């Protein structure tokens, strides 16, 4: 009987939550005046280009018609999110030229991890701007904004947010892929799995730090199916039976991503309890990406294994936009395909404008969200 009551109250709670989610949709949309984004190359709009080395052509060719610091031929999911709110695309915090931070800032940097880094980018291939550093930068940005707004002589105030915009902003976080990718190339899969709780704990600390600074609305992306990245699949010759799934993705790698996501979702549930004024949405990006990969043909795309930009033939691999001199004096160029809109994978790791647009359509209307509310209503705690 005790058991029946547990089941019964479980059902009741579900109904109440659903009712809340339905009610929330009837409330007026949130008026986010700014977006602050944290992450890796999936949402870097210029950090690595500004701070370390420029992204080269043909990145940006489809939408911007020039390289604009993003890895991809066009827009990233964060661009579609900004667009949804009528906000301009986010300037990278590190970009000192031509930037406006009036409506937010982007702290994401390609190659960034959740866990703090001690190695240089040359040693590890990882960005020095791990999530803890991105949050330090945010703290500095916020403090400096407050200072400059008080400074009578400072003349560029219209490039800064208003102090009251900080708590009312949308805080987007999309990070974790490099923690997994680096783990896959440096330790065993078992060791990587064992380190996930540490990685997730570092994530939680940074959400708490942002909350302590006044952030209230969090929109947290989980990690994608890393075992489906075309660059990984390139190097796999004669896989043993069962190594790949029915869509040609590395099963064990996707299992690690799924376990990361399970733990991320659990920490989000805990953070909701610990941070009473936070509205935290967990967004299933994995489902969107795997959904497209497993339905590529029906959705009008070529398989994820086909890379639009780069040269990968006869054992020669040249990255997107790269040039490789050959011993006989000729060279190979990592050119882009004719029609990127047919491709899911842009360069083997990053997605095309068309794929990101497809993901964003699901992301924005709440199809991937827990609780199941659209991004326009993310400020309501259910
Ligand atoms: C970096 O160094 C600190 C202090 O020595 C250590 O606690 C941490 O685990 C190191 N991080 C990495 C990613 O190696
Ligand atoms: C140079 O070498 C590449 C790779 O072996 C080959 O495909 C190409 O035809 C060669 N070009 C000339 C001019 O010999
Ligand atoms: C969201 O949009 C997608 C794609 O446009 C559509 O398939 C889906 O049914 C929509 N979901 C909701 C909850 O409106």
From TrEMBL:
Gene Ontology terms for molecular function: hydrolase activity, acting on ester bonds
Pfam families: Lipase_GDSL
Signal sequence residues: 1-21
Alphabetic keyword roster: Glycoprotein, Hydrolase, Signal
Cross-referenced InterPro entries: GDSL (IPR001087), SGNH_hydro_sf (IPR036514), SGNH_plant_lipase-like (IPR035669)
PANTHER family reported for this sequence: PUTATIVE-RELATED (PTHR22835:SF538), ZINC FINGER FYVE DOMAIN CONTAINING PROTEIN (PTHR22835)
Family indicated by similarity: Belongs to the 'GDSL' lipolytic enzyme family.
UniProt name for this protein: Lipase, GDSL
Species, as recorded: Corchorus olitorius
């Amino acid at each position: 009987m005790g058991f029946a009551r547990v089941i019964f109250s479980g059902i009741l709670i579900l109904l109440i939550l659903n009712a809340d989610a339905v009610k929330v949709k009837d409330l007026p949309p949130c008026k986010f005046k700014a977006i602050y984004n944290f992450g890796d190359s999936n949402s870097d709009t210029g950090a690595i280009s500004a701070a370390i080395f420029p992204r080269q052509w043909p990145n940006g060719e489809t939408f911007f018609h020039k390289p604009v610091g993003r890895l991809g031929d066009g827009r990233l999911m964060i661009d579609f999110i900004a667009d949804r709110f009528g906000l301009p695309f986010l300037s990278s915090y590190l970009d000192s030229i031509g930037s406006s931070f009036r409506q937010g800032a982007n702290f994401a940097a390609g190659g960034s991890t959740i866990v703090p880094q001690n190695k240089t980018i040359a040693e590890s291939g990882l960005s020095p701007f791990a999530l803890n550093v991105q949050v330090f930068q945010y703290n500095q940005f916020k403090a400096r904004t407050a200072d400059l707004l008080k400074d009578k002589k400072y003349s560029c105030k219209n490039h800064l947010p208003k102090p009251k915009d900080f708590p009312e902003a949308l805080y987007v976080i999309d990070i974790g892929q490099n923690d997994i990718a680096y783990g896959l190339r440096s330790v065993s899969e078992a060791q990587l799995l064992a380190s996930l709780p540490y990685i997730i704990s570092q994530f939680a600390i940074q959400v708490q730090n942002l909350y302590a600074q006044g952030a209230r609305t969090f929109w947290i992306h989980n990690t994608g199916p890393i075992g489906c990245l075309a660059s990984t699949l390139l190097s796999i010759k004669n896989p043993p039976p069962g190594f790949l799934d029915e869509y040609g993705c590395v099963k064990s790698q996707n299992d690690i991503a799924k376990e990361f996501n399970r733990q991320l979702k659990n920490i989000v549930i805990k953070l909701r309890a610990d941070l009473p004024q936070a509205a935290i949405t967990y967004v299933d990006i994995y489902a969107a990406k795997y959904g497209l990969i497993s339905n590529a043909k029906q959705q009008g795309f070529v398989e994820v294994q086909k890379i639009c930009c780069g040269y990968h033939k006869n054992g020669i691999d040249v990255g997107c936009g790269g040039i490789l001199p050959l011993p006989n004096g000729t060279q190979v160029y990592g050119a882009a395909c004719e029609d990127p809109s047919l491709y899911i994978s842009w360069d083997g790791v990053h997605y095309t404008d068309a794929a990101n647009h497809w993901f964003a359509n699901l992301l924005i209307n709440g199809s991937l969200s827990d609780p199941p509310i659209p991004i326009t209503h993310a400020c309501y705690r259910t």
